[in-house]
Amino acid sequence: MVLPSVIYEDDVLLAFDKPSGQLVAPDRRDRAGENLMAIVRAKFGPGIANVHRLDAETSGILLCARTKPALDFLSGQFQAKAADRVYHALTAGTTSQDAFTVELALAEDEGRPGQMRVVKRFGRLSATRFQVLERFRAFTWLECHPLTGRTHQIRVHLAASRLPILNDDLYGNGAQLLLSALKRGYKGRANERPLIHRLALHASELTVTHPVTRERLTLRAPLPNEFAVALKYLRCYSAG
User: Fold this and answer.
1) DSSP summary character for residue 149
2) For 10-33, b where at least 16 C-beta lie within 10 A, e where not — what string?
3) What is the pLDDT of residue 240?
4) Helix (H, G, I), strand (E, B) or coil at 161
5) Residue (of 50, 77, 48, 84) closest to 211 by Cα position
6) pLDDT of residue 32
7) Across residues 107-129, what is the average pLDDT?
8) pLDDT at 71 over 90
9) What is the dihedral of CA 196, 200, 205, 211, to 10 degrees?
10) Distance CA 210, CA 217 (A)
11) Which residue numbers are catalytic?
12) What pLDDT sits at residue 27?
């Protein structure tokens, strides 16, 4: 496993641009599986710890602390909802709303370990604010602001809104983004691959208060190249 790109580093903080498909920490169903924190600690020392998590399928900013005081200070910000997070998602489906907020109680699905479901009782309240950035004929490009930090929160909220994230194997509808469906006369159908073949969710921005300077610090992870390519073709051939 290759160490991902470092997007910020100082004496107490270290942030990576985690690729899709990489576990942050050992999975409870696979404790021995490869994970990002194992290679981070092998390179930077055993005292480093991840401040938060990302789903294995989600790419983007992962913030780590190099000292225990920094970890405690940053963890407190996440618990107090003082860390501002911005994600971008490409969804299968469209909406007439320019902005909307989803508030639902979530709990683990006992029939499908590792998945979450919406419940009416005994769940944990979750909230996400969404902003439509662009509409296409069958897809929507969204900015997502999670106000809480539940497992799979953005994925479940969008699925519940009939806007499942593209290529979501757990909550999606099986839709694919194919150039042949956008471009007339496309001739490569025999061996065509989707323009995006991974979960179309990216952690783009994170703002926290620095544990030493006490100033607000904003970290950014650029969109993966396949997102940029997909958006280029959607804008060219499928503008809403």
Assistant:
1) -
2) eebbbbbbbbbebbbeeeeeeeee
3) 61
4) coil
5) 77
6) 62
7) 93
8) yes
9) -120
10) 6
11) 55
12) 74
The sign one gets for the Cα dihedral 19, 20, 22, 25 is: positive
Closest CA to 216 of 225, 206, 224, 226: 206
Q: Quick one: tokens of 197?
A: 């073949």
Alpha-carbon dihedral 123, 61, 42, 75, rounded to 10 degrees:
-50
Inter-residue contact 61 to 7 (CB < 8 Å) = yes
Give me the DSSP letters along 1-53: -PPPEEEEE-SSEEEEEEPTT--SS-BTTBTTS--HHHHHHHHH-TT-EESS-
Continuous segment of H or E residues that includes residue 137: none
Per the CB < 8 A criterion, the answer to whether 197 and 191 are in contact is no
Q: Go through the domains of the chain in sequence order and give each one's CATH number.
A: 5-237 (3.30.2350.10)
Dist. CA 97–CA 131, nearest whole Å: 9
How many Å apart are CA 63 and CA 49, to the nearest integer?
Answer: 9
Question: Rounded CA gap, 229 and 206, in Å?
Answer: 24
Query: Sign (positive/negative) of CA torsion 198, 75, 99, 118?
Result: positive
Two structure tokens written together for 126: 């979750």
Tokens standing for 2?
């290759």
Contact between 93 and 139 under an 8 Å Cβ cutoff? The reply is: yes
**pLDDT one-digit tens code per residue, 3-21:** 999 999 999 999 999 999 9
First-last CA distance in the chain: 40
